């Protein structure tokens, strides 16, 4: 019930990924200033029931702390192509991506997220 904050380096995040991932997919995180880069290879069958892999080079840039209730994604690039700013309104299995984030926010008590000085900073909700 108290406010808390955790700072994770890219090495910390990569260790968490390695400890919790399925052997069929791979992911690697790097961070610099206010940008997080995720390189991933995920079987499409995991999400879409199709054969093949999604091989992505994803870059997320945040300007300041962002609420997971209404995140403002300043820049997302997938495989060198910008993703439209309305990405969180896209649907997966008839639910908006924004709804999945809200569900995660509610179950994890993460209130704000920030990428700063090459670190991922997570703050607990204060409500």
Tags for this model:
about 130 residues, alpha+beta, five-stranded antiparallel sheet, 2 helices, about 45% strand, globular
Structure in words:
There is one protein chain. The protein is α+β, with helices and mostly antiparallel strands. It has two helices and eleven strands. The strands form three sheets. A five-stranded antiparallel beta sheet has the order 2-3-4-6-7. The chain has a four-stranded antiparallel beta sheet with strand order 1-11-10-5. A two-stranded antiparallel sheet has the order 8-9. It is globular. The model has no long low-confidence stretch (mean pLDDT 83).
In spatial order, strands of the major sheet run 2-3-4-6-7
Shape: globular
Order of helices and strands: EHEEEEEEEEHEE
Structural class: alpha+beta
**Largest sheet descriptor:** 5 strands, antiparallel
Low-confidence stretches: none
Beta-strand share of residues: 35-45%
- The number of distinct β-strands equals 11
Distance between the termini: 9 Å
Radius of gyration: 15 Å
Individual helix count = 2
Indicate the percent of residues in helices. 10-25%
Mean pLDDT: 83
């Amino acid at each position: 019930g108290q406010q808390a904050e955790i700072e994770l380096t890219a090495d910390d995040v990569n260790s968490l990924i390695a400890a919790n991932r399925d052997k069929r997919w791979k992911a690697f995180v790097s961070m610099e200033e206010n940008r997080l880069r995720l390189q991933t290879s995920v079987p499409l069958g995991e999400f879409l029931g199709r054969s093949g892999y999604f091989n992505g080079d994803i870059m997320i840039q945040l300007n300041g702390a962002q609420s997971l209730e209404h995140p403002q994604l300043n820049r997302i690039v997938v495989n060198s192509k910008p993703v439209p700013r309305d990405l969180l309104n896209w649907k997966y299995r008839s639910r908006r991506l924004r709804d999945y984030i809200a569900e995660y926010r509610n179950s994890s008590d993460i209130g704000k997220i920030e990428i700063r000085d090459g670190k991922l900073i997570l703050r607990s909700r204060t409500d």
